[in-house]
Amino acid sequence: MFNYGLKKEKKDKSNKLINDKEAYIPVNYSWRILMDSKNKLIALIRIRGTVGVRKDIAETLKRLNLPHVNNLSLVRADLATLGMINKCKDYITYGEISEETLAKILKKQNKEEGAVKELIEGSRNIKEALEIPVRLHPPRHGYEGVKRPYGHGGSIGYRGNAINELINRML
Q1: Which residues contact 99 (CB under 8 A, 6 or more apart)?
Q2: Which of 51, 101, 124, 149 could form a disulfide with 118 if both were Cys (CB 3.0 to 4.6 A apart)?
Q3: Integer Cα distance of 88 and 81 in angstroms
Q4: Angle at 46 between CA 31 and CA 53, to 5 degrees
Q5: Angle (CA) 50 91 41, round 5°
Q6: Residues 6+ apart with CB under 8 A from 31
């Protein structure tokens, strides 16, 4: 029915379908960066509120454990989660979290800091190690803009490793 930016099928020169994982990698550039390695840990922060949000997007935000503004959630990069992130990209910002930032979050919640390596590697469950969602303060000096993408001087959407700077401003 709808394509949602995914390549459904891939054909070779003889017009035969190729069934490999390349055929299902999303077209969006930020998704390709995130799909480079499996089990990459992604930090999601909700930027915008609930007024005027479509019901399907509100439900997706709820499933991503982002019920309120300035909530942080950690997820693993897989195709289903990235589809949910793409649906909510106008209400959240996201990127790859570093070990140092994750250690600060664990310290804030008075959890054991030895779990950082296990969380990054994927050998430990996120919900066992953290209380998700993590409540954060609004960032010092505010957001850059809540209606424009990060690449155009705003705050929403994919920001890569710059998510760590934002989280440090919010802790």
Answers
A1: 116, 117, 120
A2: 124
A3: 11
A4: 95
A5: 125
A6: 25, 82, 86
Q: Which residues of the chain have pLDDT under 70?
A: 1-39
8 A C-beta contact, residue 90 and residue 11: no
Task: Tell me how long the chain is.
Answer: 171
**Contact present, 70 and 138 (Cβ < 8 Å):** yes
| Locus of tokens 């995914």 | 6
Task: Kindly state the tokens that stand for 7.
Answer: 């390549």
Q: Phi/psi of residue 134, each to 5°? A: -90, 125
Count the Cβ atoms, other than its own, within 10 Å of residue 54.
Answer: 9
Q: Is 44 helix (H, G, I), strand (E, B) or coil?
A: strand
pTM to 2 decimal places: 0.77
Q: Which two tokens stand for residue 167?
A: 């989280």
Q: 36 phi and psi, to 5 degrees? A: -60, -45
**pLDDT, position 68:** 93
pLDDT tens, 30-76?
555 666 656 688 999 999 998 999 999 999 999 999 999 999 999 98
